[in-house]
Protein backbone atom coordinates (compact mmCIF):
# COMPACT_ATOMS: atom_id res chain seq x y z
CA UNK A 1 0.00 0.00 0.00
CA UNK A 2 2.81 2.43 0.82
CA UNK A 3 4.44 1.82 -2.57
CA UNK A 4 1.29 3.17 -4.25
CA UNK A 5 2.00 6.56 -2.63
CA UNK A 6 5.49 6.86 -4.13
CA UNK A 7 4.58 8.19 -7.57
CA UNK A 8 1.24 6.70 -8.70
CA UNK A 9 -1.44 8.43 -6.61
CA UNK A 10 -4.57 9.36 -8.67
CA UNK A 11 -3.83 12.71 -10.32
CA UNK A 12 -5.78 15.95 -9.95
CA UNK A 13 -7.00 17.66 -13.12
CA UNK A 14 -4.87 19.91 -15.31
CA UNK A 15 -7.23 22.81 -14.64
CA UNK A 16 -6.57 22.54 -10.89
CA UNK A 17 -2.82 22.27 -11.44
CA UNK A 18 -2.83 25.26 -13.80
CA UNK A 19 -4.70 27.26 -11.16
CA UNK A 20 -1.92 26.45 -8.69
CA UNK A 21 0.69 27.64 -11.21
CA UNK A 22 -1.18 30.92 -11.73
CA UNK A 23 -1.61 31.36 -7.97
CA UNK A 24 2.14 30.98 -7.37
CA UNK A 25 3.66 32.55 -10.49
CA UNK A 26 1.00 35.05 -11.57
CA UNK A 27 0.17 33.59 -14.99
CA UNK A 28 -1.06 30.22 -16.33
CA UNK A 29 1.41 27.63 -17.55
CA UNK A 30 0.72 28.18 -21.26
CA UNK A 31 1.82 31.82 -20.96
CA UNK A 32 4.89 31.19 -18.84
CA UNK A 33 6.46 28.14 -20.46
CA UNK A 34 7.29 26.81 -23.92
CA UNK A 35 5.94 23.38 -22.94
CA UNK A 36 3.91 22.05 -20.01
CA UNK A 37 2.50 18.51 -20.10
CA UNK A 38 -1.20 18.24 -19.35
CA UNK A 39 -0.71 14.76 -17.88
CA UNK A 40 1.63 14.30 -14.88
CA UNK A 41 4.71 12.08 -15.17
CA UNK A 42 4.34 11.24 -11.46
CA UNK A 43 1.69 11.85 -8.82
CA UNK A 44 2.44 11.41 -5.13
CA UNK A 45 0.54 12.15 -1.95
CA UNK A 46 1.49 15.83 -1.56
CA UNK A 47 2.33 16.92 -5.09
CA UNK A 48 2.38 15.86 -8.69
CA UNK A 49 5.07 16.37 -11.30
CA UNK A 50 4.65 17.66 -14.85
CA UNK A 51 7.25 17.70 -17.61
CA UNK A 52 7.97 20.83 -19.61
CA UNK A 53 10.39 23.28 -21.14
CA UNK A 54 11.25 26.88 -20.29
CA UNK A 55 11.13 29.53 -23.00
CA UNK A 56 14.92 29.74 -22.63
CA UNK A 57 15.10 26.09 -23.76
CA UNK A 58 15.89 24.15 -20.56
CA UNK A 59 14.00 20.88 -20.10
CA UNK A 60 12.42 20.88 -16.64
CA UNK A 61 9.91 19.27 -14.32
CA UNK A 62 7.35 21.19 -12.30
CA UNK A 63 6.54 19.87 -8.85
CA UNK A 64 3.15 21.32 -7.94
CA UNK A 65 1.40 21.01 -4.60
CA UNK A 66 -2.01 19.38 -4.69
CA UNK A 67 -4.77 21.96 -4.11
CA UNK A 68 -6.24 21.68 -0.63
CA UNK A 69 -3.62 19.22 0.58
CA UNK A 70 -2.54 21.35 3.57
CA UNK A 71 -6.10 21.49 4.88
CA UNK A 72 -6.48 17.74 4.34
CA UNK A 73 -3.22 17.03 6.19
CA UNK A 74 -4.21 19.26 9.11
CA UNK A 75 -7.61 17.54 9.37
CA UNK A 76 -5.96 14.12 9.38
CA UNK A 77 -3.47 15.24 12.01
CA UNK A 78 -6.31 16.44 14.26
CA UNK A 79 -7.80 12.94 14.04
CA UNK A 80 -4.43 11.33 14.78
CA UNK A 81 -3.87 13.61 17.75
CA UNK A 82 -7.25 12.70 19.23
CA UNK A 83 -6.46 9.01 18.85
CA UNK A 84 -3.00 9.53 20.38
CA UNK A 85 -4.51 11.14 23.50
CA UNK A 86 -7.01 8.28 23.81
CA UNK A 87 -4.23 5.71 23.52
CA UNK A 88 -2.15 7.41 26.21
CA UNK A 89 -5.14 7.41 28.58
CA UNK A 90 -6.49 3.93 27.94
CA UNK A 91 -3.73 1.65 26.55
CA UNK A 92 -0.86 1.56 29.09
CA UNK A 93 1.20 -0.91 27.05
CA UNK A 94 1.43 1.60 24.17
CA UNK A 95 1.46 4.82 26.21
CA UNK A 96 5.18 4.57 26.97
CA UNK A 97 5.89 5.08 23.25
CA UNK A 98 4.55 8.64 23.72
CA UNK A 99 2.10 8.64 20.79
CA UNK A 100 1.24 12.33 21.25
CA UNK A 101 4.87 13.33 20.71
CA UNK A 102 5.05 11.03 17.67
CA UNK A 103 2.07 12.80 16.09
CA UNK A 104 3.57 16.21 16.89
CA UNK A 105 6.83 15.21 15.18
CA UNK A 106 4.92 13.85 12.20
CA UNK A 107 2.95 17.11 11.95
CA UNK A 108 6.11 19.21 11.99
CA UNK A 109 7.77 17.13 9.27
CA UNK A 110 4.84 16.81 6.90
CA UNK A 111 3.95 20.51 7.04
CA UNK A 112 7.58 21.32 6.23
CA UNK A 113 7.24 18.95 3.28
CA UNK A 114 4.39 21.02 1.83
CA UNK A 115 6.60 24.14 1.60
CA UNK A 116 8.53 23.93 -1.67
CA UNK A 117 10.61 27.06 -1.02
CA UNK A 118 12.14 25.21 1.92
CA UNK A 119 12.70 22.15 -0.26
CA UNK A 120 14.39 24.18 -3.01
CA UNK A 121 16.83 25.69 -0.52
CA UNK A 122 17.59 22.20 0.75
CA UNK A 123 18.34 21.03 -2.80
CA UNK A 124 20.77 23.92 -3.19
CA UNK A 125 22.53 22.88 0.04
CA UNK A 126 22.86 19.30 -1.22
CA UNK A 127 24.24 20.63 -4.53
CA UNK A 128 26.97 22.47 -2.64
CA UNK A 129 27.75 19.42 -0.50
CA UNK A 130 28.10 17.13 -3.54
CA UNK A 131 29.58 19.70 -5.94
CA UNK A 132 32.84 17.74 -6.22
CA UNK A 133 31.21 14.30 -6.47
CA UNK A 134 31.37 12.22 -9.65
CA UNK A 135 28.95 9.60 -8.29
CA UNK A 136 26.03 11.74 -7.02
CA UNK A 137 24.06 14.24 -9.10
CA UNK A 138 21.76 16.93 -7.67
CA UNK A 139 19.29 18.61 -10.08
CA UNK A 140 19.30 22.39 -10.54
CA UNK A 141 16.48 24.57 -9.17
CA UNK A 142 15.06 27.37 -11.35
CA UNK A 143 14.18 29.99 -8.76
CA UNK A 144 12.46 32.39 -11.18
CA UNK A 145 9.69 29.79 -11.49
CA UNK A 146 9.62 28.41 -7.95
CA UNK A 147 7.89 29.26 -4.67
CA UNK A 148 5.96 27.70 -1.83
CA UNK A 149 3.57 25.66 -4.02
CA UNK A 150 5.53 25.26 -7.29
CA UNK A 151 9.09 23.98 -7.59
CA UNK A 152 10.74 24.02 -11.03
CA UNK A 153 13.85 21.92 -11.43
CA UNK A 154 16.09 20.42 -14.07
CA UNK A 155 14.64 17.34 -15.80
CA UNK A 156 16.76 14.28 -15.10
CA UNK A 157 16.18 11.10 -17.06
CA UNK A 158 17.23 7.93 -15.29
CA UNK A 159 16.15 4.46 -14.20
CA UNK A 160 14.23 3.95 -10.98
CA UNK A 161 16.57 2.26 -8.52
CA UNK A 162 14.08 -0.56 -7.87
CA UNK A 163 13.92 -1.49 -11.59
CA UNK A 164 16.65 -4.13 -11.25
CA UNK A 165 15.65 -5.88 -14.47
CA UNK A 166 16.13 -2.74 -16.57
CA UNK A 167 19.35 -1.79 -14.79
CA UNK A 168 20.77 -5.28 -15.38
CA UNK A 169 19.63 -5.37 -19.02
CA UNK A 170 21.42 -2.07 -19.70
CA UNK A 171 24.65 -3.29 -18.15
CA UNK A 172 24.65 -1.37 -14.87
CA UNK A 173 26.81 -2.70 -12.03
CA UNK A 174 24.36 -3.25 -9.17
CA UNK A 175 27.08 -3.84 -6.58
CA UNK A 176 28.75 -0.57 -7.52
CA UNK A 177 25.40 1.24 -7.28
CA UNK A 178 24.89 -0.23 -3.80
CA UNK A 179 28.39 0.80 -2.73
CA UNK A 180 27.93 4.34 -4.03
CA UNK A 181 24.52 4.61 -2.41
CA UNK A 182 25.88 3.58 0.97
CA UNK A 183 28.84 5.94 0.57
CA UNK A 184 26.55 8.86 -0.35
CA UNK A 185 24.30 8.26 2.63
CA UNK A 186 27.19 7.98 5.09
CA UNK A 187 28.64 11.23 3.74
CA UNK A 188 25.27 12.92 4.28
CA UNK A 189 25.00 11.75 7.88
CA UNK A 190 28.60 11.80 9.09
CA UNK A 191 30.27 14.52 7.00
CA UNK A 192 27.54 17.01 6.08
CA UNK A 193 25.06 16.60 8.93
CA UNK A 194 22.17 16.81 6.43
CA UNK A 195 20.59 13.72 4.94
CA UNK A 196 17.76 12.77 2.60
CA UNK A 197 15.13 11.26 4.91
CA UNK A 198 12.76 9.80 2.29
CA UNK A 199 14.92 7.62 0.01
CA UNK A 200 12.20 5.30 -1.30
CA UNK A 201 12.55 3.91 -4.88
CA UNK A 202 10.41 6.69 -6.38
CA UNK A 203 12.98 9.24 -5.18
CA UNK A 204 16.22 7.62 -6.37
CA UNK A 205 17.19 7.38 -10.06
CA UNK A 206 20.29 5.88 -11.61
CA UNK A 207 21.94 7.85 -14.40
CA UNK A 208 24.58 6.66 -16.90
CA UNK A 209 27.94 5.61 -15.40
CA UNK A 210 26.17 4.42 -12.19
CA UNK A 211 25.58 8.00 -11.04
CA UNK A 212 22.97 8.32 -8.28
CA UNK A 213 20.39 11.10 -8.48
CA UNK A 214 18.16 11.78 -5.49
CA UNK A 215 14.83 13.54 -5.94
CA UNK A 216 12.21 15.01 -3.58
CA UNK A 217 14.02 16.78 -0.74
CA UNK A 218 10.89 17.66 1.20
CA UNK A 219 11.90 15.45 4.11
CA UNK A 220 15.47 15.72 5.41
CA UNK A 221 17.21 15.16 8.73
Written overview of the protein:
The chain has nine helices and nine strands. Strands 1, 2, 3, 4 and 6 form a five-stranded antiparallel sheet that branches. A hairpin with a 3-residue loop joins strand 8 and strand 9. Helix 4 runs antiparallel to helix 6. The two termini are 25 Å apart. The model has no long low-confidence stretch (mean pLDDT 94).
In short:
The protein has 221 residues and is of the alpha+beta class.
Produce the secondary structure layout.
Elements: H1 4-7, H2 14-25, H3 29-32, E1 35-36, E2 42-43, E3 47-53, E4 59-65, H4 69-90, H5 92-95, H6 99-113, H7 116-129, E5 136-137, E6 150-154, E7 159-160, H8 164-169, H9 174-192, E8 204-207, E9 211-214
Helix pairs in contact: 4-6
The coarse silhouette is globular
Strand content: 15-25%
Summarize model confidence as the mean pLDDT: 94
Rg computed from alpha carbons, rounded to a whole number of angstroms: 19 Å
Specify the oligomeric state.
single chain
What is the helix/strand order? HHHEEEEHHHHEEEHHEE
Given the helix and strand composition, which structural class is it? alpha+beta
List keywords for this structure.
221 residues, alpha+beta, 5-stranded antiparallel sheet, 4-stranded mixed sheet, 16% strand
